[in-house]
Amino acid sequence: SAVISQKPSRDICQRGTSLTIQCQVDSQVTMMFWYRQQPGQSLTLIATANQGSEATYESGFVIDKFPISRPNLTFSTLTVSNMSPEDSSIYLCSVERGSPNYGYTFGSGTRLTVV
Amino acid sequence: AQSVTQLDSQVPVFEEAPVELRCNYSSSVSVYLFWYVQYPNQGLQLLLKYLSGSTLVKGINGFEAEFNKSQTSFHLRKPSVHISDTAEYFCAVSKGGATNKLIFGTGTLLAVQP
What is the pLDDT of residues A9-25, one digit of tens each? Predict the structure, then answer.
């Protein structure tokens, strides 16, 4: 399966600022996904990012708040903008290598605390 | 759209006892089903998946799950649990194809007691 490097692993940020999370994959993948896991909760899909096209956002998530870049087939970033304490969560990227046979692989996550 | 229901938010069990974690899904099309485990302060690890074929799927760490199409279920089982199995378990569904996003259930905390 693919190996994902996600950075930073954790951060403490001031409200009103922005944080960009990076996700690097060791092989080319078509689809990359960004999830949010709020404290004690399950994973909620934020958006799907395909290379060469705009990200597709799920209900309740908007591009102005969570802009995503996907410049090539191995890299993506998620920015959490104008943060508030409610944004304190773990953010995870995930990839699916074109077939469910490989399963979905997840990065180790970014634990974000907004103060 | 597909969805996943995990009815049990927490399952306490004694060590060496059998356990079943329940998962039900809803979808109007064929789906792929997954179980993931998340140990405390760690990322997600794939336990097993059902794509097609045999309805009994064996995964890592002695876990297995059975796909039941008529009951739209994909329950996870282990005949004898260990303390080290204490973790959060997530059932997830994908319908494959071009829009093959993975949708997660709310999770079940398996708490193994000595």
Answer: 999 999 999 999 999 99
